[in-house]
Amino acid sequence: MFGFGRKKKKTEVSKGGSTIYRHEEPKDQDFKPPESYCVYMEEVCEHFDKIFPGRESRVMHEILSDLVHIDVHVMMPTAEENFRVIYTTGMSDLPMTVSKEVQNYENWQHAELVMLLPDSWNPGEALNMNGDTPHKDFWAISGIKYFAKMPHYFKTWLGDGHTIPNGPDYEPILEGSEMGGVVLIMLDSEKSPIIAKVGKQIHLLMVVPITRAETEYKLEHGMAALLKKFDEHNVPLVIDMGRKSVV
After folding, report:
1. pLDDT at site 120
2. Which of these, 144, 142, 156, 137, lies nearest to 205 by C-alpha position?
3. What does the alpha-carbon distance between residue 148 and residue 165 come to, in Å, rounded to a whole number?
4. Which distant-in-sequence residues (6+ apart) come within 8 Å of 17 by Cβ?
5. Residue 123 phi, psi dihedral angles, 5° rounding
6. Which of 14, 83, 84, 138 could cross-link 18 (Cys pair, CB 3.0–4.6 Å)?
7. Sign of the four-CA dihedral 102, 107, 112, 118
8. What is the 3-state secondary structure (H, E, C) of 102-133?
């Protein structure tokens, strides 16, 4: 879904201090079944039930898994919080390849992803998606699964403030939307990280679609400046694919 290659090349740094990684497809990529399944699933699910209480949940189980087994959990809206929560389990089964230049890099090797979606987004009560499911209903599921697998396929890592364009031309994620990529935002300290087995830290990263202009603004001025723009324009955490760029 998102244009992102696999072979890490020369590292660049933007004016805003962001490290830029450029990748390309490998010559071959053989299928490799996961070595372990759902290592931290129970703890991750219990944590989400705690921070988003009183929600009915369903799971989209991955049938055929390559390298890592990613399930997507869908938490239904409540009267008090009229939005859906989707999150991954399985991404944290394997450590990400975090640069040793990152301070305490061992603590950033495990993560799961989360998205907040409006009540109007409804993948079906039974989550019975198939090849006929419209892209407007399926993009969030396919996107969050893609990002969960990405660091393991490409031997890289995902962390707070990382931005990923939808290909070199920032193609719209949805037809008619200005959103051409995503930024990852760490959940606040009351919600992340999860302290799992043997003290393992699992960070929770929110996937937020953004425009090309917003991505380039972040690379130029840094993540704090982009978040300030979001605050100034009251950008909600619940995804609005029809919103206009804040830059």
Report:
1. 87
2. 144
3. 16
4. 222
5. -80, 5
6. 14
7. negative
8. CCCHHHHCCEEEEEEEECCCCCCCCCCCCCCC
pLDDT for 36 equals 81
Q: In degrees rounded to 5, what are phi and psi of residue 144?
A: -70, -30
Please check whether residue 180 is in contact with residue 164, taking contact to mean a CB–CB distance below 8 angstroms. Answer: no
pLDDT tens-place string over residues 126-167:
455 555 667 777 889 999 999 999 999 999 999 999 999 999
Regions in the chain scoring below 50 on pLDDT: 1-9, 126
The pLDDT of residue 8 is 43
Distance of CA 164 to the CA centre of its chain: 10
| Tokens 């990400």 sit on residue | 96
Closest by alpha carbon to 47, among 16, 17, 87? Answer: 87
